[in-house]
Each structure stands twice: as C-alpha cells, then as structure tokens.
C-alpha cells in the first residue's frame, strides 16, 4: 500500500526558502503532466517563527505528521540569529527520533565526471548507497557532565547500540541490495577499539548477512573506509554504518559526487511518514540572492516521490539533473552562470 499522498513542506531558513519553492515548481510540473494528486500543506517553522513567538516544533504536529502525511519536504535549518540552533534541533532531531526515522539514506552518485575531485573517476565508479543509522549511536544525548567548569570536570557521551536498532538498519541495507541486484554490502565500525557496542554490530552483521547468501558482506574499520572511498570508490555499492560514522562518511561522499549542492538525503521509516532534505545547510552567506543551487533539493524531491510510490519520477529527476550538469545549466558554485530559477527552468524544459 502506498503511504499517505500528502506532503508537509517546511522551507525553513536561508536558502531553504529559495530551493524548496524552486523544487516545488518541478513537482507542479510533474503534477500537471502525470496527475499524481499529491496534496501539500506548508508549515511556517524555522528561525523566523522561533524569533517571532518562540515556537520550534509544536508537539501535536508530530502526531499530525504521523497520521496524515506520507512525507515531509524540508529545506534547511540554521540562522546566525539563533545561536543555540534550538529550532533546528527540535525540528530535525525531533522528527528523526519521534517519528523513528531510523534510516538516513544518502546516495553518493557521481552524475558528471567534471565535478569529481578524484582523478579519472566517472559515473560508473561512484554509485554508492549509504545507510546511516539515524536514531541511536552517539546522537541520543545520553551522558552527563560532572563538576562542570572546574579543573576536575568529567564529561561523558554514551554511545547507544541496541540489538533492534542495529539489526533493522543492517537489514534495510541488505533488503535494498537484494531488491536492486547489488552484489555487496560493506559494514563499517571501529570494533577494534570500541569493543562492546561495535561487537554487537559485528555479530548482527554476520547473522543478517547469512540470510542473504547471494550478497557478499564485507567489513572495514571506518578509518580504512575513509581512505578507500577516496582511493577506490568503485569497491562500494552499499555501505551501512552507525550514526556518527555515517555523518562523516557521507560528507566525504558529498564531495566526491560533485559537492554539497548536489547531495540529497532521506530520513526514512519504510512505509511511514519520512523526511527528505538536501544535505546542505541554510548557507546564510548566499541566502536571498537567488543564486543557491536547487539541484540537491530536486534530487531530494525525487527520493520523496520514490517513497510515495513513484520511482519513475525519481529516475526522471536524476536524468534531468544529469542533463543540467552536462549542459552547464548550473549555478555559479559549479562554474555556471544561472540563478536558482533558471536552473529549475532547465530541469522543467528537460522533463518536457
Ligand atoms: P548551516 O549552519 O545551516 O549548516 P552553513 O553555511 O554553515 O549553514 P552550508 O549551508 O552547508 O553550511 O554551506 C556551506 C557553504 O557551501 C555555504 O557557505 C555556501 O556558500 C555553500 N553552499 C551550500 N549549499 C549551497 C547551494 N545549494 N548552492 C550554492 N552554494 C551552497
């Protein structure tokens, strides 16, 4: 069964206010052409709202997201006027934890070799799907400070690894590999140094892998993974790792795929409301100038459409982005001359 055919739109801060409306023009176009009938509701959340009335994320909204929506489309959160970034934490981390969005799905796909900083690498060499665990690890805030602001201060940050959490993210990676005919899944941890939590990853990986005998499981310590992604990215098809390592590795991935303006992501719970957002932040330095690259938002919209049951539209959006890159219909940071809206015009023209 398809998830709810309604999306919540949170443009958020900075260039989020530009790239989200821009990407929604592409959705308008697809609607006019294919008539999927996807409803939208726009939510006024972000730094402006927080500064106006102190609202970050109303509790009842999470219930509405869960009950009424198939997906949330988020632009970016972050504003120099909100130093604590409390609104971003409440909205983004709140959604991840409260909606149990346990898969942070980050494709690392090079669409055009000219944008790759690695020598002699083409689209066939860099095509990786990263499954980052999104609800546990070092990001739960478990820990504490003792004797704060004294010379004897102790600060503890605990890493949470549960059997259920580790198993479901590893299983999701294998399920993906299985469904797409991928030959291998790489699990990355630091079990040589982190002997308790990451031993759980080791044991669980072996057990789940045994259920998929046609897929080669292999393991790399995260430091080796970082080196290998630069030396030989073609080794990888699917990577599964924990929250912290996934955060770092996927930023490396964003660079080898052509930069942060092209990196898309999903925060997913299969079959339930899930959140899709470009990887870049609010980029206050370029906000309001109409020069933000909207292609990461377009690719994130593609992932959202796939989640709602339209993989064919995800494919056509990837083709449209590849076309824009090939023909230099791109913004300045990619060496082009176009503004945000003109790039979207090129995407729509390609879609026909
Ligand atoms: P935040 O605090 O919200 O994460 P940030 O500026 O620290 O914002 P990013 O927004 O990820 O972090 O951006 C880093 C730099 O990359 C920005 O200064 C901007 O110049 C550039 N950048 C990011 N996204 C885009 C984009 N979509 N188009 C063009 N340039 C971008």
SSE arrangement, N to C: EHEHHEHEEEEHEHEHEHEEHHH
Query: What fold name stands as the CATH topology of the largest domain?
Result: Isopropylmalate Dehydrogenase
- Major sheet details: 10 strands, mixed
Uncertain spans: none
End-to-end Cα distance: 30 Å
Topology:
Blueprint: E1 6-12, H1 16-34, E2 39-42, H2 47-53, H3 59-68, E3 71-76, H4 86-98, E4 103-109, E5 127-133, E6 143-146, E7 154-157, H5 163-180, E8 184-189, H6 197-209, E9 216-221, H7 222-231, E10 238-241, H8 243-256, E11 264-268, E12 274-278, H9 295-307, H10 311-326, H11 340-351
Parallel strand pairs: 1-2, 1-3, 3-12, 5-10, 8-9, 8-10
Antiparallel strand pairs: 4-5, 4-11, 6-7, 11-12
Helix pairs in contact: 1-9, 1-11, 5-6, 7-8, 9-10, 10-11
The chain binds adenosine-5'-triphosphate (ATP).
Adenosine-5'-triphosphate (ATP) is lined by residues 15, 76, 78, 260-261, 280-286, 292-293, 296, 331, 333.
Written account of the structure:
With 352 residues, this protein is α/β, with parallel strands linked by helices. It has two domains: 1-102 and 269-352, Isopropylmalate Dehydrogenase, CATH 3.40.718.10; 103-259, Isopropylmalate Dehydrogenase. Helices cover 41% and strands 18% of the residues. The protein is built from eleven helices and twelve strands. The protein has a ten-stranded mixed sheet with strand order 2-1-3-12-11-4-5-10-8-9, sandwiched between helices. Strands 6-7 form a two-stranded antiparallel ribbon. Helix 1 (16-34) runs parallel beside helix 11 and helix 5 packs parallel to helix 6. Adenosine-5'-triphosphate binds at residues 15, 76, 78, 260-261, 280-286, 292-293, 296, 331, 333. Residues 15, 76, 78, 260-261, 280-286, 292-293, 296, 331, 333 line the site of adenosine-5'-triphosphate (ATP).
């Amino acid at each position: 069964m398809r998830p709810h055919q309604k999306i919540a739109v949170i443009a958020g801060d900075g260039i989020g206010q530009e790239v989200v409306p821009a990407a929604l023009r592409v959705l308008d176009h697809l609607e006019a052409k294919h008539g999927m009938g996807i409803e939208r509701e726009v939510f006024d959340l972000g730094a402006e709202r927080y500064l106006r009335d102190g609202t970050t994320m109303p509790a009842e909204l999470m219930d509405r997201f869960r009950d009424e929506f198939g997906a949330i489309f988020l632009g970016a959160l972050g504003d120099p006027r909100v130093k604590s970034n409390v609104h971003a934490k409440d909205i983004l981390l709140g959604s991840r934890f409260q909606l149990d969005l346990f898969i942070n799905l980050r494709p690392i796909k090079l669409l055009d070799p000219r944008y790759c900083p690695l020598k002699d690498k083409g689209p066939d060499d860099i095509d990786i799907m990263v499954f980052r665990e999104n609800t546990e690890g070092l990001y739960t805030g478990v820990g504490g400070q003792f004797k704060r602001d004294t010379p004897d201060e102790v600060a503890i940050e605990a890493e949470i690894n549960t059997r259920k959490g580790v198993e479901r993210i590893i299983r999701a990676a294998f399920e993906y590999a299985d469904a797409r005919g991928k030959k291998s899944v790489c699990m990355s941890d630091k079990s040589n140094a982190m002997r308790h939590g990451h031993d759980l990853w080791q044991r669980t990986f072996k057990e789940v892998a045994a259920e998929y005998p046609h897929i080669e499981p292999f393991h790399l310590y995260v430091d080796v993974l970082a080196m290998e992604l630069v030396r030989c990215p073609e080794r990888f098809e699917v990577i599964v790792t924990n929250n912290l390592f996934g955060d770092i590795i996927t930023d490396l991935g964003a660079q080898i795929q052509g930069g942060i303006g092209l990196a898309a992501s999903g925060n997913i719970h299969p079959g339930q409301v899930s959140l899709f957002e470009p990887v870049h932040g609010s980029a206050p330095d370029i906000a309001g100038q109409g020069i933000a690259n909207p292609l990461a938002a377009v690719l994130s919209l593609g992932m959202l459409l796939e989640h709602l049951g339209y993989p064919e539209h995800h494919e056509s959006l990837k083709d449209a982005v590849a076309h824009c890159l090939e023909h230099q219909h791109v913004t300045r940071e990619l060496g082009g001359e176009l503004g945000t809206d003109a790039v979207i015009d090129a995407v729509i023209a390609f879609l026909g």
